[in-house]
Amino acid sequence: MGNWKLIGTCCLVTVLTFSGPAMKARAGSPEFARTPDEWEKLRDNVMEYDELAGLIHEYNVTVQKNQLDLNDKKKDDLVTRDQYAQYYRDAASDARSAISGDDPVSDAKSAVSAAKADKEADVSTEDLEIYRLTYDQTEANLVAGAQTSMISYFQQKYELERSMINLELSEAEYQAALAKQSAGMTTQVDVFTAQENIQNSRGAIDKLRASVEETRQKLCVMLGWKYNDIIEIMDIPVVDMERTGLINPETDKEKAIQNNYTLKINKRKMENASTDITKETLKRTISSNEQNINTVLIKDYQAVLQTKAAYEKAVGEYNLESKNMDIAQQKYQLLMLSPFDYQRQKNTYNVKSIAVKSAELTLYQAVQTYDNAVNGLASTGG
Cα 160–164–170 angle (5° rounding)? Predict the structure, then answer.
């Protein structure tokens, strides 16, 4: 495939069809906004976790549309609160001008529209800065969504790997059941059960493969590729375990409040408010926002602690199983362990290994969610 990302939206399909090399796409920023090295990394067909924010900013369709909307508002002189209020007052004037006295029903509708526009003008708190903050919040949420999807992609791949390992064991159990049946040591029901386990495993694998592909396609479209482009998806970075022990919601609370997009928007609205009732309502909303941010930060911190404990537990179980595997290997070489029992032990060992990788991803997601909350995305409850 080509070396350029393409903006586009496409349906997700099970069977991929390829429409030729990707074409050069137009980024959201001018060429001088980034260094040649930065553009080269964003334009290659490699998806890296630390590039997600840049890819969203340059190639995501929603982000580009929002930037165009901001530019249009500047051109239309919709910049200050007064200009937005005048926009509504002009609409009210137009509605009143439509009242002719010839059609009572039409005149009544125009009068209602005029009164509604006048009210909007009185309570209006909009300005260009509020739209900018709102669109920045949208972009930050899109980045967070891409992060979650990329982590989920690898989680699903690990689950697929685990299911394929279990399928191997199910097939071994089926062969063992057939052998026992031939020796008169088991019933046909046991053979059917083993066969059914194989079918269930294969069904689960098919579903997981479809899920992995759907997540891959979703990521591609979000980040500017076509859904069927061939790209390389790099591994998620490893968790900084030392940092997980340094996270402190008490020291991060003030930063989370200062960075929060919803809180910034509501504070700006209060600055723009012209009526006492609007100001009082926003004042109460802001107070509630700050309390909710603190609550969310503590909740996200607890999630980090819980997922870290789960990761450490998974590592402990894997280490134990590694010892069991070493013993099984020795016994198998000395013909003291049957091939089937060795296969069972190997299956358990491999599953524990995958569990460690999966638990680390879950921990990484928890840390990322906490960081996103500190950086402005903590839910404010309104």
Answer: 140
